[in-house]
Protein: Acyl-CoA desaturase
Organism: Holothuria leucospilota
Amino acid sequence: MAPRNTDSGLEPVEDLLSPEESEIIRREEKPAVVHQQIVWRNLIWLSLLHIGSIYGLFGLTWRCHWYTLIWAVVLYIWGGLGITAGSHRLWAHRTYQAKFPLRLFLAIGQTSAFQNDIYEWCRDHRVHHKFTETDADPHNASRGFFFSHVGWLLVRKHPDVKAKGAGVDVSDLLRDPIVYIQNRYYVPLMFLWCFIIPTFVPVYYWQETAWNAFFVAGLLRYCLILNATWLVNSVAHIWGMHPYDDHINPTENPFVSSLALGEGWHNYHHVFPSDYRTGEYGWRINMTTIFIDLMAAIGQVYDRKTIPTEIVLKRAKRTGDGSRFN
């Protein structure tokens, strides 16, 4: 703050105000503090989920049938693709088009990942992109790692999320019959695909114990998918390079990309959200892009959108941190 000029012969403006007027100005200058109510249901559920997952990881993975471990990995990839190739790149951003069989496959995987239905997931994600790192961002990373990773699910949404989010267009989503049906019957479908089938298959087909199947293929697998997705919201908004735009928080993070099936190239994605690859380098640590390209090869995917390299380079040169050219 600049020192007060006592030689001007003028009194500071604040000295001319009454105490009441000064207090009003101070209140208006301070940002409104919103005390968000804890959602106890989510807090209890997510706590129990992580406790059960830790038990499954350290207490049961070495005791269960190796088929069960393979099954858990298959479900992780299927659920992950349901989020990355489905909710994110197909429905939220419309970066490519998919035929009915693939949309159904992705919707089932998305349901098994239990991260809200496609409609709600895409609505929140479009709000996140439009109001990134503001109070209208559902998982505002400027509030720190914990809030952007999981804390945002433990409290009621900030009023700005609902107020400003109401203006984000999501009218296209429910026109897809798959999205419409999933939205309408989400709860029973979620229980079926996230917990019942992952537990039933090992028990029925290779006589795994229901206990092992539930904690390993059910809870542990689900918890790992959740945290992989959350890493995109937290770590990939805090730590990493900014080769395309050094003025925004999202970063390029290979570690996140390896766990989240290619979603860690986040600086690129926030600069060029319409590119189906969500990264400049295609298949590099990007299982989702590989999957989409394979689906295109068998005719299930079409109209893939990309950003021309010359545009990417111009943007990187203009606003990036220089790491793109190192």
Q: What stands out?
A: The first strand starts at residue 97 and ends at 98. The chain has 14 helices and two strands.
